[in-house]
Write a structure and sequence with these properties.
Layout (H helix, E strand, L loop, with lengths): L2 H5 L5 H13 L1 H4 L6 E3 L13 E6 L3 H12 L3 E10 L2 E10 L2 E8 L7 H7 L1
Amino acid sequence: MNTLYKRMENGSRKQRRAYEVMEDLGIIKNYLSFHPVLCGTIPIGIDVENSDLDIIMEVYDLPSLEQRLIKDYEQMEGFRLQRKTIREREVMKANFLYKGFEFEVFAQPQPVHEQHAYLHMII
């Protein structure tokens, strides 16, 4: 579990609320085998009103994850799932709304600490 995610438990009001919603959803704990990392503006405290919760994952079997996300989150408002190729690599993206937050799950066959979303956040 990434440190920024855990720090949100005692962060700003929005960070605490996001942490509670993510814990309620169980998305980090239920997908640990995919090395989920929360990225984006909320965990680093530079979010704006409509910032979403970006969760990146390391996945080598996209169809398997896709089926699991459909099973777990298809009933969520605004659920949509797509696959595309970015930088010559097949990726999968799922979006949905839950308790006032927009979630974006981004998965690709690459370690999370080498993914652009993670590197961009760290910089």
